[in-house]
Amino acid sequence: MFPLFPQCECKLKQKGSLPPKYALEMLTIYAWEKGSRAQDFDLPEGFRTVLELVIQYQHLCIFWLVNYSLNDESRVLRNFLLDQMKRTRPVILDPADPTGDVGGGDSWCWHLLAKEATECLSSLCFRDKLGCPIQPWKVPTESSF
């Protein structure tokens, strides 16, 4: 499942409708933006951070205010975005289109992915050369305004 880490033997054991890859890509970008921003970041730290976020899927409310604003004069967009953020977690709003919640709430089996992510964290790929656990970046599960 994780070709960059051959020592990780994690494979999804149960079948279910998993979140789309785009949701995980957005989660990865969010983790990098909030946790590292380094051009030469440590891949195991970043990967561990994303897995930790997946495990906390029930608390995820992630959005970007790069291409849209909450200062909409008509308040239509603002009210819509605030309603989106009240939806069942995980909420991951597409940065290009805030009407698209790629987190999907209950639409996908995040619980299966979270279970597998938890099991993967015990893999050797999350240990340093001395055998100590690699620490994730400190990343909030919710975006802020």
TrEMBL record:
2'-5'-oligoadenylate synthetase domain mapped to chain residues: 7-141
SUPFAM superfamilies: PAP/OAS1 substrate-binding domain (SSF81631)
Statement: the UniProt record of this protein carries the keyword Repressor: no
PROSITE patterns: 25A_SYNTH_2 (PS00833)
Keywords attached to this entry: RNA-binding
Protein name, entry field: 2'-5'-oligoadenylate synthetase 1 domain-containing protein
PANTHER family, per database record: 2'-5'-OLIGOADENYLATE SYNTHASE 2 (PTHR11258:SF3), 2-5 OLIGOADENYLATE SYNTHETASE (PTHR11258)
InterPro entries to which the protein is assigned, alphabetical: 2-5-oligoAdlate_synth_1_dom2/C, 2-5OAS_C_CS
